[in-house]
Design a protein that fits this description.
- The chain is an alpha/beta fold.
- Among the domains are: about 140 residues, Rossmann fold, CATH 3.40.50.1820; about 90 residues, no CATH class; about 170 residues, no CATH class.
- It is built from 14 helices and 29 strands.
- The strands form six sheets. Strands 21-20-22-27-26-28-29 form a seven-stranded mixed sheet.
- Helix 2 runs parallel beside helix 4.
- The radius of gyration is 26 Å and the shape is globular.
Length: about 700
């Protein structure tokens, strides 16, 4: 179904401008593709003087010391501590990376310092009035990924009653540049202070606007984790009806809404993307002429698009309602038509609001229509136990849909789907499975007395433990026959499985620790290369992901680190004791002279390896190890969100050049010779090239 709206041209321009202010994101940042092809360079503004910097640092230091003292007390709610620390952190990033080059930027720094002091004073007095006010506030949480404080915007309507669970709308912001002052702008652009505002917010829902780690990460990996952690932070403070969480966003936020909503269709009651592209390759090579086109992609890079592109998950719109919106003059309108065709191919009705005459940003009337339709779904709430499941995935990173969880694939990055329904007697009938070797059925399915399980017309014997255990049961295929293996808590999953499926970039979406080798490398060139990769990762993580890279020497890593974090190991078996410890359990041969992975055999004097693998050490269940790699996309890719996708698979062999310690952090002398994927058993013998 297409819904169009036509507006008189005389006031179209005013409406569009108004829409930019009131649209689904705040503040909305139009994609840089909307900028002219050439822009006159403005006059160089005055930089921050040494005296100004010294004055700001003098104000900053006592605030940092007071926050350290408050946290050490131990009885302070860490979310409340983060609510104050977020201002201090934003000022630190602004001073470190800038640009603080005009009066407005200086005012934002000064305001950030003032707001930090206000909140620290309140906490020291045992108060936190911002948690009780209605209206706008800026809040924070401590991310489990790297221990950093991440901010988010919140709007609590005047009608909120703590005794009654309320709908939550998660609104993803548009494209933003990850400048040093960007976080401060994100905060100050929304901060309404901690006192009650005269504005009455009459919405019937709480509105959350995550920062998503800022920048152009496209809400992928740690960007997605940021959204999840922000939701949980709000749920800790407010009564949220989890069956009525709406996901929406515009521009880059629309990209995020499409992909998060379709890949995890059981988390939201409805999804409302606006002006957001749905794929990578078609979009990149057909958009405005001054967009950077993708270079010819390698086979493994093309494969990785199945992990990130929302369009491949269109079939999951059967499980979560989608109300899309886009202007027909939007340069991304082809993407709207592309997803509409995919809906038709899947046989799913498409609710697409086409804003006739609008460019990159929808008008208030169309936004009101979208919110109205989303509100109808939210009013009903999400069915906690849908009687029919139709779920598609291409990776075990996205493996769950309500009471069905896929636990094993025949082959990653090929379409896998399952269709199952609950019969009248509460029996489960699995009608279709493609590219699936193992799955779980979660309660409340199969909990009724006498309920049976049928897979593709064959009735499966259910052991006694599977009935009314209130635990998920695991069904696995052996020699073409499906059998119940046991309850999920008792079955040992091996091979690629949810949370341990790769690729390398997946390691940074959960708690991780970089480990620096302190020994002598077998080959100096490899030691220098490993150090250069770690240096680049630390620099990119701080600038683009707004945190300090978690880092320890190999001699400092504890058993607790091993059990709780993905270990990112830099060095070689000579320099890093943890690489030496796990090497016998990996599918590689590495000595002073030779590096071998499957068919790849190279000199270890000037060749390095990057890979991801389940951590084989005792106590490390569910954790990764990574060798010599941070993200596989870097500054060049992080300029534009559509370029943010894994550039390597599970492993890569690289030719190493000369890496000098005094070289810029962004410079690593290396050339990828080959990359690929381990098979579903995490073995190298059947690597796909």
């Amino acid at each position: 179904m297409n819904i169009t709206r036509t507006f008189p041209s005389a006031w179209r321009q005013a409406l569009t401008l108004f829409a930019i202010i009131l649209t689904l994101t705040s503040p909305i940042s139009l994609a840089r593709a909307q900028q002219p092809a050439t822009v006159a360079k403005p006059a160089e503004p005055d930089p921050l003087t040494d005296a100004e910097r010294t004055a700001f640092l003098a104000e900053l230091k006592p605030l940092q010391e007071r926050l350290t003292t408050l946290r050490a007390v131990g009885n302070l709610n860490l979310d409340r501590w983060a609510d104050a620390q977020l201002f201090v952190k934003a000022v630190v990033w602004a001073l470190d990376f800038g640009p603080i080059s005009d009066a407005n930027a200086r005012e934002q720094v000064q305001k950030g310092l003032g707001r930090a002091k206000q909140r620290i004073d309140a906490l020291a007095a045992g108060r936190h009035p911002w948690t009780e006010k209605r209206g706008r506030s800026v809040r924070g949480f401590i991310s489990e990924v790297d221990g950093s404080v991440q901010p988010y915007h919140l709007i609590v309507p005047s009608s909120y009653d703590p005794a009654k669970p309320m709908r939550l709308d998660v609104v993803l912001h548009g494209s933003t540049t990850a400048t040093g002052i960007g976080e401060l702008r994100f905060i100050n652009g929304f901060d309404g202070g901690d006192e009650e505002e005269p504005t009455v917010f009459a919405n019937n829902f709480i509105e959350l606007r995550p920062m998503g780690r800022l920048g152009e990460n496209a809400y992928r990996f740690e960007g997605e984790t940021d959204v999840d952690e922000a939701i949980e932070a709000v749920c800790r403070d407010y009564q949220i009806d989890r069956s009525r969480i709406v996901l929406r966003g515009s521009s880059l936020g629309g990209v995020g809404a499409w992909q998060l909503g379709l890949k995890r269709p059981d988390r939201y009651v409805a999804v409302g993307p606006a002006a957001g592209p749905v794929d990578t390759f078609v979009f990149a090579n057909s958009a405005w002429k001054h967009f950077v086109r993708l270079e010819p992609l390698t086979s493994w890079q093309k494969t990785m698009l199945h992990m990130v592109d929302a369009i491949d998950y269109t079939a999951n719109a059967r499980m979560v309602p989608v109300v899309a919106a886009m202007g027909d003059q939007d340069p991304y309108y082809d993407s709207h038509q592309l997803i509409e065709k995919e809906f038709a191919k899947e046989g799913i009705p498409f609710v697409g609001l086409v804003d006739v005459g609008a460019g990159h940003g929808i008008t208030p009337k169309v936004m009101e229509e979208q919110l109205s339709l989303l509100g109808e779904y939210a009013a009903k709430g999400r069915d906690p136990f849908p009687k029919q499941i139709h779920f598609v995935t291409w990776t075990l990173k996205f493996s769950r849909c309500n009471w069905i969880e896929i636990l094993g694939l025949k082959s990653h990055y090929e379409r896998a789907q399952i269709e199952a329904r609950v019969e009248a007697d509460d029996s489960i009938n699995v009608i279709e499975l493609n590219n699936i070797t193992r799955f779980a059925i979660h309660p409340p399915a199969l909990q009724a007395a006498g309920a049976s399980l049928t897979i593709r017309g064959v009735k499966i014997v259910l052991p006694k433990f599977s009935s009314r255990t209130n635990r998920p049961i695991v069904i696995e295929q052996h020699a073409g026959t499906w059998r119940v293996q046991g309850t999920l808590d008792a079955v040992t999953l091996i091979g690629k499985r949810p949370g341990l499926q790769g690729p390398i970039d997946d390691a940074f979406a959960r708690p991780f620790l970089c480990v620096r080798g302190t020994g002598k490398p077998w080959n100096p060139a490899i030691g220098d290369w490993a150090d250069a990769n770690m240096k680049r990762f630390a620099d990119e993580w701080r600038r683009h992901y707004r945190g300090d890279l978690p880092l320890k020497n190999d001699t400092e890593v504890t058993d607790d680190d091993v059990s709780r974090k993905n270990l990112i190991l830099f060095g070689d078996p000579g320099s890093n004791s943890w690489i030496n410890k796990i090497l016998p359990q990996l599918s590689i041969k590495w000595n002073n002279d030779t590096l071998q992975l499957g068919k790849e055999i190279h000199s270890s004097h000037d060749h390095g390896i990057q890979l991801i693998h389940p951590n084989p050490l005792p106590g490390a269940a569910g954790r990764y190890i990574v060798l010599n790699s941070g993200h596989t996309y870097h500054d060049q890719e992080l300029r534009f969100s559509y370029m943010v996708f894994p550039r390597l698979g599970d492993w890569a062999i690289l030719k190493v050049g000369e890496n000098r310690a005094d070289a810029p952090a962004s410079t690593v002398a290396e050339k990828v010779l080959n990359s690929g994927f381990f098979n579903e058993a995490w073995k190298v013998e059947q690597i796909r090239y």
